[in-house]
Amino acid sequence: MKNIIIPQPNSPAGWQAYANSEAVASIPLQAAQDVNQTSRIATFRGVFLNATTVLPHSMSRVNVYADVLAFADQTTIVAPNDNGTILIVSRVLTATGPVTLTVPRGLATTCVVSIYASVLNQPITVATGDGSRRINLDQIGTGKVYSGVIVVFNPSGLQVEYQRYYPSTASKDLQASLNTQLRIGLVQFWRNSSIAISLCSHVAQISTGQQAYALLNTQARALGQQLAGQAMAGQNMSYAPVLVLSRYKETTQSALNAAFAFEHQFERFQDKAESLDTQIQAWNAMLSQAINEYNMRINIRNLALEKYEYSVKTATGCHQQFENDVFALELLRIAFQAGLNRWVFEQKLKAVFEILQATITFAVAVGQLCLGSPGGVGQGAAAGRQAIGAVVAAEKLIGQVNKVLSSGTLQTLLDCIEALGTLYPSVDTIVRTIMQFEKNPNINIPSTGDISGTSRGDADAAAIVTMAAWDKWLLEADDQMAFAVGQSIDGASAYQLGLRKHAINGKQLAQAQAEAVKSGYEYVQAQMEVIRSSQNIADLQALKAGFHGQEAVYLEAKSMFYDRAMALRTNVVLSLRNMAWAYRYWALADSSINLDARKSLAEYQQDLSTVIMELERADSRWASDHQPFNYDIASNTLPSNQGQSMINGIKSDNHTASFTLLTDKRFASQFVEGSHYRLNGMDPTLNGILPRPEAMQGGVVVVRLQITTSGIYSDIYKNQVFHFASLPQVRRCSYDLYSNGERGATRDEPIFETVDHAEPTPFTQWKIKLLNPEQVILNGLTGINLKWKGRVRFDERRRLMHGIEEL
Q1: Which pLDDT value is given to residue 169?
Q2: Helix, strand or coil for residue 89?
Q3: Helix (H) or strand (E) holding 68
Q4: β pairing state of 85-95 and 111-120
Q5: Cα(213)–Cα(225) distance, rounded to whole angstroms?
Q6: Tell me: the pLDDT tens digits for 355-391?
Q7: H or E stretch including 67?
Q8: Which residues on neighbouring strands pair with residue 725, listed in sequence order?
Q9: Residues 309-338: what's their mean pLDDT?
């Protein structure tokens, strides 16, 4: 199970195959047409439509609502009645080559063609009948400001007027088209994230600002921004369920049993050979199951809300730590900037000087953008672009040496930060609003047409910048600063260490915010399912009361039962995904199961058996169990001078020390010779502190500490780094402190084995908070001793690689 991004099709043949696939073709009520020869009005709706077929001549009005509209001919002639209009609303316009839209030669009247589209596979030109005037419609499509264009053909020529927004309309055909696109999006959510994000973006853009489509907009955002958050997090990031895998078996099997029972009745309902009585019996059975399922949906919704609130707590903690890092880096910047200004360099190092200046500017910009203050965001974006411009100019200087940090690295990271800065702030607003919808259906739900944070990303998930941008910034900035350290520039060494911590914790913050985006919209999707389930139940009850075999009523009910069946299938897939994620965390390998909402239920049953078998066999790759370890690590040996900042943290007003470990050997401390590191816990001791005499009882003061992890974890196996988001762990540690400063007995034991919960890895952001600072004297604090206990699988190749790199 890998998060591989597949590009969208870009040709009529590719889109035809997409539309003909069983998963898309099986969606009910996806197409309709109404051609009224009397009124001369024609409306066409479908997933894949051919322009030649749906742009008939001599009609007064033609409305086309499609997911994909294909132009088979290089030149398409439109010929509506006098003063006729054509409206095209299609997510994709595709062709095998450039397309020209024109009118018959000698047009004697006026006609209007309105085109709204998100993706253009080929250039489209409009031309007069005699070809004397041609205009390329190059301002619509991917990455463009405009959503559509109105083209007016008349005897004197043609006029083009671009439209920034989709037209406001309550058309039932448009709404049906959007419903179909969301149903396709739910299927493609598991199959092709590029198509799914594009579908969600298209629906969101059309429905933005239209109260009648508020729930459609919310559904589109819920699906699309989960995928955008996943794409930002990168292929190696997944959620780590907090329980061991065996605890998820029963949940998955229960979801499967419910889906089996419902689909059996759905098949009876769809069998036209069955009698009306049999169809009604199946209707009653499915309706009863849908009512029972409603309570399950509420439970799923509540669990999703808990997960979101934990992710917000994680992001908030990371934000606080990064804010501290920004402040600390600013103090180091002042000293380094002064040293850099005094540095006398040769002409061939002018580019390096400019790049070092840009490094300082860009780091400040990163802080302003990530912390998200209204004024700071604008200043940060401007400063970031200024730094990029300076590096671009430096890169053009001839004969320069020792240039490491590239403008491309800065631009990529800026894109990543700005995209996340677009998505993250709005999550809590939509979550809090949608929570109130059941009590107040008239509440104003905020809408947006932005799914990925970038217009290019809305059309192509592969264009979404991932967290790897942070890794490249850390590597190149650190190497560039190494040159400054080598030149003995005053303040360079301290600034290098501060910049490392700034980059490491900046990425932690970005990962936490991306996870909050995903989990927030998982909750929104779960809440929307509660709302839709309730609406479907009410509508199905009303429809059944008047059902006597009418085809229109049958088709409407079938579409609702399809939605309920898909909801049950989605439950199964989500449960299987939890199991696959748990396996990934345990085995540091991807499960072989393929998540898909359109598999047969028998295939899901096989997937369940497969992932259970994979777990049972995971340990067979080794000849023995994990090997226990006990490490004592002094804070002054931690990478990037984090030991001193820990001392400063305990002495600060919030009395909190923090440090971060990564799988990279430079930032891993002693955890460098193996993989599958799993911790029973970490026990800290504050060295050099003394009890306040007035606080002593029984000859001791009890030092009370709280140990927390950020909830963003990593591990490594065969040089592949795996990232995981999970719940932050919080443990209490307390011990006796004697009058001479020696540690006595442990009261609250922070190290213990777990049975039902997955253990954390050491590669995360750690915080140690002193809960009773008023009872101790901190002046003599010299460091913190960290006692670790856990299990590991030692890897000789990683040990040798670490040894070679140290030489």
Answers
A1: 83
A2: strand
A3: strand 61-71
A4: parallel
A5: 18
A6: 999 999 999 999 999 987 666 677 888 999 999 999 9
A7: strand 61-71
A8: 239, 712
A9: 93
Q: Parallel, antiparallel, or unpaired: how do β-strands 61-71 and 41-50 relate?
A: parallel
CA–CA distance, 616 with 713 (Å, rounded to integer): 24
Structure tokens at 299: 């439970």
pLDDT at 3: 64
Of 468, 477, 497, 494, the closest CA to residue 355 belongs to 477
Extended beta strands in 209-341, E state:
237-239
For the segment 287-294, the average pLDDT, to the nearest whole number, is: 90
pLDDT at residue 31 greater than cutoff 50: yes
Looking at residue 5, what is its pLDDT?
Answer: 76
pLDDT value of residue 57? 78
What's the CA angle centered on 429, arms 423 and 431, to 5 degrees?
95
pLDDT at 420 over 50: yes
Query: Mapping DSSP to helix (H, G, I), strand (E, B) and coil, where does residue 456 land?
Result: helix
- By the 8 A CB rule, do 202 and 182 touch? no
The pLDDT assigned to 177 comes to 96
Residue 807 has a pLDDT of 40
Residue of 223, 283, 268 lying closest to 545 (CA atoms): 283
- Gap between the Cα atoms of 339 and 229, Å rounded: 41
Is there a contact between 389 and 273 (Cβ–Cβ < 8 Å)?
Answer: no
Average pLDDT, the chain: 90
Where is 18: in which H helix or E strand? Answer: helix 12-20
Q: Could you give the strand order of the β-sheet that contains 765-770, starting from the edge strand earlier in sequence?
A: 656-660, 765-770, 701-709, 730-737, 743-748
SS3 for 596? coil
Q: What is the distance between the alpha carbons of residues 306 and 300, in angstroms, rounded to a whole number?
A: 10
Sequential DSSP letters for 527-595: HHHHHHHHHHHHHHHHHHHT-SS-HHHHHHHHHHHHHHHHHHHHHHHHHHHHHHHHHHHHHSS--S---
Give pLDDT, residue 799: 56
Burial class of residue 62, CB neighbours in 10 A (0-12, 13-18, 19+): buried
DSSP output for 290-327:
HHHHHHHHHHHHHHHHHHHHHHHHHHHHHHHHHHHHHH
Q: SS3 of 218, please? A: helix
pTM: 0.88
Residue 439: count of CB within 10 angstroms of its CB: 7
d(CA 368, CA 323): 10
The two tokens of residue 609 are: 């058996």
Name the β-bridge partners of 134. 127
Q: If you average pLDDT over residues 228-251, what whole number do you get? A: 80
Residue 24, pLDDT above cutoff 90:
yes
Averaged pLDDT, 575-604: 91
Backbone angles phi, psi at 159, to 5 degrees: -130, 145
Q: 3-state DSSP call for residue 13?
A: helix
474 C-beta neighbours (distance < 10 Å), count = 23
What is the per-residue DSSP string for 384-423? Answer: HHHHHHHHHHHHTSTT-------HHHHHHHHHHHHHHHHH
What percent of the chain stands above pLDDT 70?
Answer: 95
Residues 6+ apart with CB under 8 A from 564: 262, 286, 289, 290, 293, 533, 536
